[in-house]
Design a protein that fits this description.
There is one protein chain. This protein is an all-alpha fold and about 70 residues long. The chain has one domain (about 1-65). Helices cover about 80% and strands about 0% of the residues. The protein contains four helices and no strands. It has helices spanning about 1-10, 15-40, 45-55, 55-70. Helix 2 crosses helix 3 (about 45-55). The two termini are about 20 Å apart.
Length: about 70
Amino acid sequence: MSSLLRKLSWLLQRRRKEAELRDELQFHLEQEADERQAQGVDKEQAKWAARRDLGNVTRVKENTRATWSWAFVE
């Protein structure tokens, strides 16, 4: 039952949740890039490597949304 309530809650708060997801992914990309820069990697290479390691951002978002909600309803 808690899964049902969580998914209904997500549908009602979709815009806020989408913004939170976007911000969270951006935070992790920045943290990873900063760690690489601290190890001596060039700034642009560090950003590129962080994106490569995270993978396809759109796919990550889609997988997260699928966990939060019912994809067939959307």
